[in-house]
């Protein structure tokens, strides 16, 4: 016995064959669309009585004898179709329009072009009173249930086109994401920054503690890495004489995937010559507030169950002191065993190479989860910040800061290290950790050190990823990108 789906597919194929015999193009190249559906609905007074051609996908279709009520959906939204048998002509092969008697060949999911007059029905709904319909794309497969949508989350990500089609709020989310980056660019432009391009493929990767993806370039028979940061190339441009530059683009980290981390994600990173980390702290705060107001029209948010207001004063949290206060750990004096015990007590499971820096970082992460913010984390130790300048009054600490919101780090900046001798020494220390098994430790980049030997001005840099957008939306990373990575379905 055939399943209901099999019956639907057979019915649709019969309609396809009938349309072909009638000479109706199933997928014509030419179409016409004079306005977005939602604009017409929202501005009825402007369009009342006008003849319009609209287009979209059929999302509802109800036949009542000589009347049909339908809905078509475009990117902006839906509009009702009001179709009367006596208001339409016969099917016209030359014009490729369907008469009322042949509308039964249409299905929910078909994309059509509809012409007619903008009216309001007796119930007050803005509608297109249709006089002509042209098929633009025939849907061979039925859409998911309009109420349940795609119930399996992985299937929704895999068939994101259906997920978005059936859920207009998700469509709006990604429009907000586009605006998120748009206002970021406009903010930086107004501050005098210019956007630059840096390589995605790097022979030596750096700028962050992360495990890179490796690939091979056949043209020169050499391995390359997908970038984990744009930092070292942007600093080369600062050395060249640019003073305010930024990049927005994809970074890649070959690590775990969870609600806050994806192997591929978008990052904004900028460098500002003749500025220090305190200057950047103020600029970052101004940007975050600007994004919140321009994209969402507010500064108060709830993320991961934590409330925060970006308009409030941003507290400063001392890295060394907060770990001492909350865990009784002195990161300069406590033993590795004491730190390991504190980490294990919190339930954290450590994987990969375990060294002092990783232990300290995990001590901090235990505390970070409880901080709603907005706050700055400052005074990170030198041995954990290989690219940051030391504080003049305490060389063991650096002029570095992180922004903490809803228990997470949403960006990181510092006064850049520009002393070539100090930079080489820190790179060599990182390289030693890497050779000891720490795949996230940074590589020795001798070309970058050589640039510093020519001289790079005092500079401050900052980077934040699209995680900020995920938090403002209060969604996971997979929900925040259009096409998250998935295992191939077998």
Automatic annotation (TrEMBL):
It is an enzyme of class 6 (ligase). Gene3D superfamilies: Bira Bifunctional Protein, Domain 2 (3.30.930.10), Nucleic acid-binding proteins (2.40.50.140). Coiled coil: none annotated. Its cofactor is Mg(2+). Keywords: Aminoacyl-tRNA synthetase, ATP-binding, Cytoplasm, Ligase, Magnesium, Metal-binding, Nucleotide-binding, Protein biosynthesis. It comes from Candidatus Collierbacteria bacterium GW2011_GWA2_46_26. Mg(2+) 1 binds at residue 409. Belongs to the class-II aminoacyl-tRNA synthetase family. One of its GO terms (biological process) is lysyl-tRNA aminoacylation. This is Lysine--tRNA ligase. Its EC number is 6.1.1.6. InterPro entries: Aa-tRNA-synt_II, aa-tRNA-synth_II, aa-tRNA-synth_II/BPL/LPL, Lys-tRNA-ligase_II, Lys-tRNA-ligase_II_N, Lys-tRNA-synth_II_C, NA-bd_OB-fold, NA-bd_OB_tRNA. PANTHER family: LYSINE--TRNA LIGASE, CHLOROPLASTIC_MITOCHONDRIAL, LYSYL-TRNA SYNTHETASE. One of its GO terms (molecular function) is magnesium ion binding. It catalyses: tRNA(Lys) + L-lysine + ATP = L-lysyl-tRNA(Lys) + AMP + diphosphate. Mg(2+) 2 binds at residue 409. HAMAP family: Lys_tRNA_synth_class2. It is found in: Cytoplasm. Homodimer. Residues 185-484 form the Aminoacyl-transfer RNA synthetases class-II family profile domain. Its main location: cytoplasm. GO terms for cellular component: cytosol.
């Amino acid at each position: 016995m055939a399943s209901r789906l099999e019956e639907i597919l057979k019915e649709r194929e019969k309609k396809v064959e009938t349309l072909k015999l009638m000479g109706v193009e199933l997928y014509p190249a030419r179409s016409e669309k004079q306005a977005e559906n939602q604009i017409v609905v929202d501005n009825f007074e402007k369009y009342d009585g006008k003849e319009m051609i609209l287009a979209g996908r059929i999302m509802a279709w109800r036949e009542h004898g000589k009347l049909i009520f339908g809905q078509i959906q475009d990117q902006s939204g839906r509009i009702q179709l009001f179709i009367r048998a006596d208001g339409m002509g016969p099917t016209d092969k030359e014009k490729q329009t369907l008469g009322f008697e042949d509308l039964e060949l249409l299905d929910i999911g078909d994309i059509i072009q509809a012409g007619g007059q903008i009216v309001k029905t007796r119930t007050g709904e803005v509608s297109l009173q249709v006089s002509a319909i042209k098929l633009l794309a025939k849907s061979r497969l039925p859409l998911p249930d309009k109420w349940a949508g795609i119930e399996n989350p992985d299937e929704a990500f895999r068939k994101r086109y259906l997920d978005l089609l059936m859920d207009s709020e998700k469509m709006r989310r990604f429009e907000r994401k586009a605006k998120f980056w748009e206002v970021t660019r406009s903010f930086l432009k107004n501050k005098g920054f210019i956007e630059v391009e840096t390589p995605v493929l790097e022979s030596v990767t750096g700028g962050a503690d992360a495990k890179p993806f490796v690939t091979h370039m056949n043209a020169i028979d050499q391995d390359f890495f997908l970038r984990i940061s744009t930092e070292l190339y942007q600093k080369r441009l600062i050395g060249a004489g640019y003073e305010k530059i930024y990049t927005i683009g994809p970074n890649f980290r070959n690590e775990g995937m969870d609600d806050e981390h994806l192997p591929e994600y978008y990052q904004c990173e900028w460098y500002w010559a003749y500025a220090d980390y305190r200057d950047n702290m103020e600029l970052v705060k101004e940007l975050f507030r600007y994004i919140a107001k321009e994209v969402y029209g507010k500064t108060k948010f709830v993320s991961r169950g934590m409330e925060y207001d970006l308009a409030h004063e941003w507290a400063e949290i001392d890295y060394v002191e907060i770990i001492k206060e909350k865990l009784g750990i002195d990161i300069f004096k406590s033993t590795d065993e004491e730190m390991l015990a504190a980490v294990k007590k919190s339930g954290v499971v450590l994987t990969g190479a375990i060294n002092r820096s990783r232990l300290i970082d995990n001590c901090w992460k235990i505390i970070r989860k409880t901080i709603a913010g907005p706050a700055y984390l400052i005074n990170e130790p030198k041995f954990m910040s290989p690219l940051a300048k030391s504080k003049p009054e305490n060389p063991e600490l650096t002029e570095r800061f992180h922004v903490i919101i809803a228990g997470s780090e949403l960006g990181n900046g510092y006064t850049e290290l520009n002393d070539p001798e100090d930079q080489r020494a820190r790179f060599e220390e990182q390289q030693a950790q890497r050779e000891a098994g720490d795949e996230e430790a940074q590589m020795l980049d001798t070309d970058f050190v050589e640039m510093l030997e020519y001289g790079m001005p005092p500079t401050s840099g900052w980077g934040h990823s699209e995680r900020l957008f995920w938090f403002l939306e209060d969604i996971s990373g997979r929900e925040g990108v259009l096409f998250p990575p998935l295992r191939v379905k077998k």
